Amino acid sequence: GFDQYFMTRSLENNRNIWFNEFWEDDFRCKLTRPGIKLDPDKKKCTGEERIGRDSHYEQEGKVQFVIDAVYAVAYALHSMHQTCVPAAPALCSSMDPVEGRLFLQYIRSVNFNGEETAAIPRENPDQP
Question: Is the pLDDT of residue 13 over 90?
Answer without folding.
Answer: yes
